[in-house]
Amino acid sequence: MPQSRWKLWLWRFAVTVSLAVWWGGLTFYAAIVVPLGIEQFGGVEQGLLTQRVTVRLNVVGTIVGVCLLADALWRQPKNCRAVLASVLLALQGWLWFLHARLSQSMETISSSLPSDESFYHEHRVYLWVTSAQWLVGLTCLGIWCVRPPAIPADNSAADIARGKH
Length: 165
Description:
Blueprint: H1 3-41, H2 43-74, H3 80-107, H4 117-145, H5 157-161
Helix pairs in contact: 1-2, 1-4, 2-3, 3-4
């Protein structure tokens, strides 16, 4: 394999692994760690832990988004990858903004979660934005990692739909 193709393969492998690690980590955190943390520690302590962990998830999400966007822009022809990466980064920017606001609210109440309704409203928004980002990440995994089957050029769409090819 020529050196340029080797570098391209290595780059795309690194992008794919980083996407899989981020998405898998976010999934594991939301599905396993948060429920067990709430069960073990309760709401306040879990919130303080979550505040620290989500910084790391946001850092990794930002890196992955930048890598996906760079990869999408280097590909020819341009396709939906650049749009997906941009959406992922826009959601990540929103998460950074919300995280800063939530952290500021938490700091004003001396190491405990605030009880005011605006905090909980913003926290719900944070969770919905995270869910949307998770879905975009899942779509990115499908687009970046799964190659659709080739459709022979000499078969019509009707033949393919009927299973004849």
